[in-house]
Amino acid sequence: MNNIDILSSLKGGLIVSCQAYPGEILFGSDIMSKMALEAKNGGAVGIRANSPSDIAEIKSKTGLPVIGIWKERYADSSIYITPTLREAEAVAEAGADIVAIDATDRPRPGQERLEDIVAFLRSRYNVMLMADVSNVQEGIQAEKMGFDIVSTTLSGYTPYSRSLEGPDTELISELVKSLKIPVFAEGRIQTPDQATFCLRQGAYSVVVGSAITRPQTITKKFVDLILKSAVTGTA
Ligand SMILES: CC(=O)N[C@H](C=O)[C@@H](O)[C@H](O)[C@H](O)COP(=O)(O)O
């Protein structure tokens, strides 16, 4: 499939983010690719995955389009989603169809510049680029910089963005009004109703992670409410 076909295969659909961290029981490419296969069985049109090995394994097992990231922490920056050229190149090399990169307006590790990462990837790889943003200005900047897609991933995760319990539907609408490129809805989408609402706001696709692929988080929500209702006598 070429990039245009890949993008149209994602339109109006659900992308499932399959991620686990070192130290967690589900960590590892074998388990993440099984999770991704079950997401495919449920009708997911794409997968979002973290790290070169998960990306390669999920791509080969599911055959679905993969949005690849590589989370790495550096001491000199709070950016951790595909923060430097090193991670971006490794994600492209691993076979991701779309490389997602933190495109927030914050200093990058080693003072790298986002435009240089974009230019480098464009010169070497025929891969689509997704900007993970936290507000509308960052989305506008990302479109100018040449990104193919913008996602609301980082709303609520920068000190200057809205902090909400659910998805940032206002940001989705603002981005849809301001941009020509597709806007993906991502972050804290917890129910099918919220997902369909995001699509009705104009989102091109929705990305759901924790509510589907993080059983400990889902379990804790049940337990917390059960404990709260046992204490107060109300749910
Ligand atoms: C902020 C950040 O680091 N977001 C990450 C990006 O890949 C993931 O941890 C999220 O799970 C993903 O964005 C999906 O969101 P949610 O899990 O809320 O459905």
Automatic annotation (TrEMBL):
It catalyses: an N-acyl-D-glucosamine 6-phosphate = an N-acyl-D-mannosamine 6-phosphate. InterPro entries: Aldolase_TIM, NanE, RibuloseP-bd_barrel. Gene3D superfamilies: Aldolase class I (3.20.20.70). Keywords: Carbohydrate metabolism, Isomerase. SUPFAM superfamilies: Ribulose-phoshate binding barrel. It comes from the Bacteria. Its EC number is 5.1.3.9. Converts N-acetylmannosamine-6-phosphate (ManNAc-6-P) to N-acetylglucosamine-6-phosphate (GlcNAc-6-P). HAMAP family: ManNAc6P_epimer. Belongs to the NanE family. This is Putative N-acetylmannosamine-6-phosphate 2-epimerase. It comes from Cohnella silvisoli.
